[in-house]
Write a structure and sequence with these properties.
Length: about 525
């Protein structure tokens, strides 16, 4: 296991104060226990975001002595109870909690909030049986009852967190266990045979590991063997996608996350050597500021990233010896459209994401990756992109070549204004959670909007390297430019800083008129150092 525990401990020691700073720690404050610093301290929000109460996992790690030295039991126990009661205060009369705006009744805030406090309350039954007596459980009952009646089908990490939260709530007597089975059935039936769960249309490595975290805790309280089977399928899916540099091809994600979290993987590693290999490979340098997880913003760091890291600590020593996956020189995953090619000497790995406009990545040992971010096209105030996950792409793969084509996706930037927020709050007051599907369609899915210039890409990969040929049809008055790393689909946990933003991309920078058909070629020879 090399120095993996020291890597985890170093990261935690560097970051724990950053998380605790998010909490209102004044026991006389009416917002005591709240982890939304923008609400209780800066007062730039007029409501707390309930999803941030997952910070209670950090408090529990301090209480149990996993981190921190000479901590007063009275103080830390008061903080733990305060964090649980802070979530309870945020539950409205209908059993909803908010995340981004008042009256939202957010599914993920309910799911992740219940999951966190449910796990803590479950553990207190044996480790601190005196603490639940100080918790106001009546609002939590409303929360779990409301959550049990809702379904999330397009972001399965949220449904997995909700399932774990409901199972934990049943274990501590807050809800009837009979409500669990239909939710579990839907979740496990939704897993793709390739091992991934649907995240707005395809796989996403970051959210998949969040799902594994939830399934690990779900299994703890239910012993449902389907959870173990689902975890192992997901681990096999992830393992075959790790490149020559020991990283996953993050920009090929459906939802554009660029992190993975370890808790579910570490738990699985006690019985699955492949999970141990993933942990050692993906987190071998966690203690170094160059590790991608250091770029996570405060919100998501407090949300579930740090919680997953800190909860891994007591399980690291139980990991089995790591076992790497069997080498496969080439992989074609038709369901999600991933093509993976390894060089014969295993010095580089090339990837194509067919359902994301054919985006290409090349991972190299001891060198930064070669990246491609597709195209943006602008005409008369309208904006289209080829960098968009969609089932509308036509895909043809023959031998060492793949062709992808479709009209580019119309998109837009969303800029917040006071007027927009007033309208949003009025509509939310009138319609509650019924407003959420409309907002998702507007900001995330944008289905039926592939109405821009026709784009076609052909990618050839073999032992000599990667060749790429793009064609964009004529569109008078339009300008085509190579895209930056940022993706225009709104996903809150995406778009952390990456050094890849500073690197030259596979496509040369260009800014060209589409008054006639545009054809662009690029290549990377395998012997190149650039």
């Amino acid at each position: 296991m090399s120095d993996l525990p020291s890597q985890f401990h170093h990261y935690i020691n560097c970051q724990v104060a950053r998380v605790l700073t998010q909490m209102d720690r004044d026991p006389d404050s009416p917002t005591f226990g709240c982890f939304d610093r923008n609400y209780w301290h800066y007062k730039i929000r007029d409501f707390p975001s309930a999803i941030l109460q997952q910070g209670v996992f950090t408090l529990e790690a301090v209480r149990t002595g996993q981190i921190g030295n000479k901590v007063s039991p009275d103080v830390i126990e008061r903080w733990c109870v305060g964090a649980v009661n802070a979530l309870a205060r945020q539950v409205d009369r209908q059993g909803g909690v908010d995340e981004y705006y008042p009256f939202e009744r957010s599914f993920p805030a309910a799911a992740f909030g219940l999951y966190a406090v449910g796990r803590v309350l479950y553990d207190w039954q044996t480790s601190a049986p005196h603490l639940p007596n100080s918790v106001n459980q009546a609002p939590l009952k409303r929360l779990v009852q409301k959550l049990a009646g809702r379904v999330e089908q397009k972001a399965m990490n949220q449904q997995a967190a909700g399932l774990a939260g409901i199972a934990l709530a049943a274990k501590i007597g807050i809800i009837d266990p009979g409500s669990i089975q239909p939710i579990a059935d839907r979740l496990f039936q939704s897993q793709h045979p390739e091992g991934w769960f649907n995240e707005y249309g395809g796989p996403d490595f970051g959210y998949l590991t969040v799902t594994l975290d939830a399934l690990a805790d779900y299994y703890d309280v239910t012993c449902d063997e389907r959870a173990i089977q689902a975890i192992d399928r997901a681990i096999a899916f992830l393992a075959q996608l790790v490149g020559a540099d020991g990283r996953l091809p993050s920009t090929l994600n459906c939802r554009n996350t660029d992190y993975v979290v370890p808790y579910g993987l570490v738990r699985a590693a006690s019985r699955n050597p492949l999970a141990g290999w993933l942990v050692e490979t993906l987190f071998r340098d966690l203690g170094e500021p160059t590790h991608p997880i250091w770029a996570t913003d405060d919100r998501y760091h407090c949300h579930y990233v740090f919680a997953s890291i800190i909860r891994s600590l007591p399980h690291l020593d139980a990991m089995q010896a790591a076992q790497a996956p069997a080498f496969q020189p080439e992989i074609w995953l038709k369901g999600c459209g991933y093509w993976v090619y390894w060089s014969g000497d295993r010095q580089w790995t090339a990837y194509v994401a067919a359902h994301k406009g054919g985006l290409v990545r090349i991972h190299r040992q001891n060198q930064p990756p070669i990246v491609d971010h597709g195209w943006r096209i602008e005409a008369k105030g309208k904006l289209w992109t080829s960098n968009w996950w969609s089932d509308e792409w036509t895909i043809q793969r023959r031998g060492q070549e793949i062709s992808i084509g479709c009209n580019c996706q119309k998109t837009q930037f969303h800029v917040a204004t006071p007027v927009k927020h007033v309208i949003l709050r009025l509509l939310a007051w009138l319609f509650g959670e019924k407003l959420v599907p409309f907002l998702k369609q507007k900001m995330i899915f944008r289905s039926g909007k592939a109405d821009g210039p026709q784009f076609a890409r052909r990618v050839r990969i073999n032992a000599t390297g990667v060749e790429l040929q793009d064609q964009i049809e004529k569109w008078e008055g339009a300008i085509a430019t190579t895209s930056p790393r940022q993706n225009l689909r709104h996903v809150a946990s995406a778009d952390s800083f990456s050094p890849e933003e500073w690197q030259p991309a596979l496509l040369p920078p260009t800014h060209q008129s589409l008054d006639r058909k545009l054809q662009v070629s690029a290549s990377w020879p395998s012997g190149s150092n650039s």
